[in-house]
Structure formats: C-alpha cells, structure tokens
Write a structure and sequence with these properties.
The chain is α/β, with parallel strands linked by helices. The chain has eleven helices and 25 strands. The strands form seven sheets. A five-stranded parallel beta sheet has the order 3-2-1-7-18, with helices on one face. A five-stranded parallel beta sheet has the order 9-16-10-11-12. α1 (10-22) packs parallel to α7 (296-309). It is globular.
Length: 449
C-alpha cells in the first residue's frame, strides 16, 4: 500500500512513525513545504524567556529519522492540488520549481494551521510579527533584542505565555485582549482575574475589552483600539489559528470554519483520506460534538491513530477534553473540559463550585493555597470541566479530571473516588474529593461555598 502524508509537524510525524512501526514495508511518502518538521511551538515562550537556550531543542524529530524508518521525505515540496476522485496530487519542488504528479492508495492530511491575521489596516508593518513557526520565533527573538516595549495582541495561551516571557526579560509589556477576560476558552472570569492580577503584579499592562482597529507609526507602532491608542516598539499578534485545508475544499466535508470533519477513526468523508492535527476537528467529549481545538496533544494522538487506521478500523479516537496547562510566574494554571460560561452557552443546566484552601495540612513545614473551580451538569450530575490555580503543581489534577470527564463520572463519583492520603501530598480527603463533596453539598441545598 502507498500512503502519502501531506504536511509533517506533530500529526504527520506521529502518523509516519506509527505506520512504519506497525507495517515496516509500507511505501510512505511525506511532502512538507517547510525545511523542518516537528517544531514545538509551545516552546517558543520558553526560548524567548531564555529558559531554553536553543530554539533547535524544540524539534523532537528530523527528516533523517523518518527516512531511517523507511519513508521517503520530500522537504520544501509544496502540494499544489489534490484530486481525491483519482487519488492523485500535484506537487512543486520549491528549490528546483519542478512540478510533478504522484498517486496514493491512502492520504493522510496533516497540513496544520496558520496564524489568523486580522484584516486590520497597517498590519503589514515590519514591526508587527506573527508567532507560530520556527522561522517566526527566530524573527521575534532577533527583533525583540533591540526593542524595549513589546505589545501582544491576543490573550490566549500563547499571548499570556509571551507576556510572561518578556516581563521576565526586562521588557515593558502591553497585553491587549478584545474579550473581557484572558484565556476565555479555558477559564471562567473569576479564574481569569487571578491570571490578570498575576500579570499586573509582574509589570504587564493588561487592557481588556479593547478591539484593535488599526496600526500606524514608523519608529514606534501605534496600536489603535476601540478604547484608546497604545504605543510599542514591537507588536506580536496572537489572535488564533485557521485550519489549512484549501487543498481539500469541496472534496471532503468541513465545518463552517473550514476544518475537516473526521469520524471516530479520524477518517474524512472520503474513506481513503484521513486527517489529523490542526487541519481537522476534534470530538469534544464534554459536549459530544465536533469542535476545532488546535492543540499539540490532539495532533499527536490523531496522527498516531491515522497511522493505525489507514490499515482498517483498528482503534477508535477517544476524543478530547482539551486539557491544557501553563506555568506563569511560578504558578500553575490548568484546565480541562468546559468552563461554566461555555457550558451554559451549550445549553447545559450547569453550575460550579470553588474550592480554596491549602493543598496539604497546615502543620506541614510549608504548604500552598489551591483554587479549583469545578463545573458540572445539575441534571445528570456529570463533571463537565475544571480549572486550577496554585503555586503547587496541579497540572496532573487537571489530567485526573480529564479522565473523569472521559469516563462520564459524576460529582458523586469524584466525592469519594479512591485517592492516596499522605501529609506530604494532601489531606485525608484529597482536594479533588473535597471539591466534589462541595458540589454534592450544593445540590443537596447545604452549599458551604
């Protein structure tokens, strides 16, 4: 069987690795228009904050590795057209400009996404940069050396992480967000307030509810917003990603945003085409619906499953809870599933409780405060999501709640689920048990929040 993989970041790399591990004799050809693969864009902030010395350390695979496995890797090759009906592609060698055709039995679409560039006047200014790829990260690093005041437009994960990185490297930082909170896909307003306060404590100028309407200026960039103008030496735009799927438009089913819709075997509406990563939707378990969530965790899992399932319906895609986390000025911020705001928007009869206490007994030499916001459905009592904020490492607790959502556990399950007790780590009832008990008490009418 001949398999063509179009695009080779996280999902493509995982797919090739899985195919050749399970079926070493498979003819696999990779077409990648860039000169690198497997770049961890989530590590850009670590590099810009000088916590990682070499940006090249953010690559966990290279073309030579995939070739040693037995694949043919064509770097700097741009796929110009896909003819799904006849199972052919047209490709250009970007170095020689030769254009040629190739054919496949199965196609894996892992073309990823690109930075959403808002249609704003002046955004083509050379001092306005995007942030996703290896080349963009290098450009940001070099440009920021000679610029003291940096403005970041967009306060999702990347924007907030960049704000921390530059605040830690003695830059003046302005963070501009069109929403009334930061991290609005992951946190409810009260948890967002914790993050905003932390940013401000470290000198970041945070402006919420400000829509950027234009850019102007020469020596300094003037960021024009719906509220006021701001000035900066350099602007980094972090306003989200768009699925890179034009090659298959009109040939497979896509959602209204242009992301390829997949089934439980990461297969598109064309049975010989599979999709993984930022190019496609995810099955979002808290709602039971397809959604677009461009996360590296989703990409790697979907890519590996595509590599398995091109040989038949071998393993189902379990879906995702969009579990994520970050370290911010020594605190862990983590989330999984739905926020209360999003749960209500999706029609759930949802509610939330907040646990705020020490993570382990106060008789221990040290301890830290922990805030957990648990979101649940009042009708089914199922756990819908959770958010965490603490100096204590609580990212793994987000993973635990992710499993609970995956398994349709209720607040009653969480209240008494078996967890270890040892004073170094927690109280006789773990804090996840305790927040579950708070939710049960609230539903019984004895809310202690």
């Amino acid at each position: 069987m001949k398999v063509i993989v179009v695009g080779c970041t996280h999902a493509g790399t995982a797919a090739v690795d899985q195919i050749l591990k399970d079926h070493p004799g498979t003819e696999v050809t990779v077409y990648e228009r860039d000169d690198n693969i497997s770049f961890l864009s989530c590590g850009i902030a670590l590099y810009l904050g000088r916590r990682v010395k070499k940006l090249e350390d953010m690559f966990y695979a290279d073309p030579e590795t995939l070739e040693k496995l037995g694949s043919k890797v064509c770097m700097k090759h741009d796929v110009l057209k896909i003819d799904a009906k006849n199972k052919k592609i047209m490709c250009e060698n970007l170095e020689t400009h030769d254009v040629f055709e190739d054919s496949y039995d199965k196609l894996i679409m892992t073309t990823g996404s690109y930075v959403q560039v808002p249609p704003i006047m002046g955004i083509d200014n050379s001092k306005i940069l995007m942030c996703k790829s290896y080349a963009q990260a290098k450009a940001i690093y070099e440009t920021a050396k000679d610029n003291k005041h940096i403005a970041i437009v967009g306060a999702g994960y990347i924007g907030v992480e960049l704000a921390e990185s530059y605040a830690n490297t003695e830059h003046e930082v302005t963070l501009i967000q069109s929403n009334d909170q930061v991290l609005n896909h992951y946190l409810d307003p009260s948890m967002s307030d914790n993050v905003v306060n932390l940013l401000k404590e470290h000198g970041v100028n945070v402006f919420l509810n400000e829509h950027v309407t234009g850019f102007s200026g020469d020596d300094q960039v003037v960021i024009e917003t719906s509220q006021e103008d701001h000035k900066a030496d350099l602007v980094i735009v972090c306003t989200g990603f768009i699925a890179n799927t034009d090659l298959l438009r009109g040939q497979v089913e896509m959602d209204r945003h242009g992301a390829i819709i997949i089934n439980e075997y990461v297969q598109t509406s064309d049975p010989d085409i599979y999709a993984a990563g930022d190019a496609c939707t995810v099955n979002f378990n808290p709602t039971g619906k397809s959604s677009y969530m461009p996360l590296a965790t989703n990409a790697i899992r979907q890519g590996a499953l595509a590599g398995m399932n091109v040989f038949g319906n071998i393993q189902k895609y379990m879906g995702t809870q969009a579990t994520s986390g970050m370290e911010l000025f020594g605190y862990t911020v983590a989330s999984t599933g739905l926020t209360l705001t999003n749960a209500l928007e999706h029609g759930f009869n949802a509610d939330a409780v907040v646990y705020h206490d020490y993570y382990r007994p106060d008789y221990m030499p040290t301890t830290e405060m922990l805030t957990i916001r648990l979101v649940y459905d009042k009708d089914s009592r199922k756990i819908l999501g959770a958010q965490f904020f603490s100096k204590h490492e609580v990212a793994q607790s987000a993973n635990t709640i992710s499993v609970c959502i995956q398994n349709n556990n209720t607040i009653d399950d969480l209240a008494f689920i078996d967890m270890l007790f040892q004073p170094n780590y927690d109280n006789p009832f773990n804090y996840l048990n305790l927040v579950g008990q708070m939710a049960v008490d609230k539903e019984r009418g004895c809310d202690q929040e």
